[in-house]
Design goal:
Order of helices and strands: HEHEHEHEHEHHEHHHE
Strand order of the largest sheet: 3-2-1-4-5-6-7
Number of helices: 10
Structural class: alpha/beta
Number of strands: 7
Radius of gyration: 18 Å
Low-confidence stretches: 1-11
Bound molecules: NADP nicotinamide-adenine-dinucleotide phosphate
């Protein structure tokens, strides 16, 4: 049944938009670049948001719930704002960007960090498990990149960083959906880099190895021990390790780096 007039579909988790989108961009100080980080409520995304704020960006960090977005706002204080967003839901993305395309101060930096896993052996993997991962980790990037590109092209400057994973090239049993999504993210990164290079926009990926977060907390003690034995640097990474790589790629210093995937994996996989 169609929603009543004026009650367009709202994504679960995010309430009805009650803010003027352009305002979150103009909350930045004059001349301050806006960095949009998806999935900034925890894990790697939270570390990236904190690092970019420390580096002087005004950070818009997203979470999938209003409560999560409020917590991001609290953490970033005057250096940014939290916003509710579900990248697997086109209506949520449309809501998020409504009016922003015409506003000054569009994000100069987009970090596509949000991602999910739904692990299972392929023979047992449900269509839902497959779809959820592809729709979030891959199609979600397509949804986010299109609206921010217009502002970057107008500004003739932009930085896009997509979160891949070491498993994109290693493979990993039980993660066919996740591995496929991340391998596709690296391909998307290369293709888009070529499309927008002439406009002063760089597009890169960061491929973390095993990083301490909710996503890896599910590993059992034995699994973690076996994993550590395979990591030449002898430790699991943390969010700050990944954030440092992202900070470099979005900086002015990285202006001649595009279409690359930067490994942050303690030597687990080289090349
Ligand atoms: N941890 C690792 O070892 C590792 C290794 C390689 C690659 N990565 C990649 O690094 C990224 C971050 O991983 P993580 O370990 O930090 O993950 P995490 O701790 O599970 O956090 C995931 C983040 O993404 C958000 N999110 C989930 N679904 C979303 C959706 N549909 N729309 C918008 N946001 C959504 C979550 O928001 P809520 O808090 O609101 O749920 C949360 O902020 C992912 O792309 C992951 O694939 C991680």
């Amino acid at each position: 049944m169609a929603p009543p007039a004026g009650m367009a579909h709202r994504p679960s988790g995010c309430g009805r938009r009650n803010w003027v989108p352009a305002l979150f961009m103009t909350a930045a100080a004059p001349g301050q670049k806006v960095a949009l980080v998806t999935g900034a409520s925890r894990g790697i995304g939270a570390a990236i948001a904190e690092r970019l704020a420390a580096d002087g960006f005004f950070v818009v960090g997203t979470a999938t719930t209003e409560a999560g977005a409020a917590a991001v706002s609290e953490r970033l204080a005057e250096n940014g704002q939290g916003r509710c967003l579900n990248i697997a839901d086109q209506a949520s993305v449309d809501d998020f960007f409504a009016g922003v395309a015409e506003a000054p101060g569009m994000p100069a930096v987009l970090v596509n960090n949000a991602g999910v896993t739904r692990d299972n052996l392929l023979l047992r993997m449900s269509d839902e498990e497959w779809r959820t991962v592809i729709d979030t980790n891959l199609t979600g990037l397509h949804r986010m990149i299109k609206p921010v590109l217009r502002g970057m092209i107008r500004a003739r400057w932009g930085r896009i960083v997509n979160l891949s994973s070491v498993v994109a090239r290693m493979g990993n049993p039980g993660q066919a959906n996740y591995v496929a999504s991340k391998a596709a993210v690296e391909g998307l990164t290369r293709a888009l880099a070529l499309e927008v290079a002439s406009r002063g926009i760089t597009v890169n990926a960061v491929a973390p190895g095993f990083i301490r977060s909710d996503m890896t907390a599910a590993l059992k003690e034995g699994q973690m021990q076996r994993l550590l034995e395979r990591i030449p640097l002898g430790r699991v990474g943390d969010g700050a390790d990944v954030a440092a790589a992202v900070a470099f790629l979005v900086s002015d210093q990285a202006g001649y780096v595009t279409g690359e995937t930067l490994n942050v994996n303690g030597g687990l996989r080289l090349g």
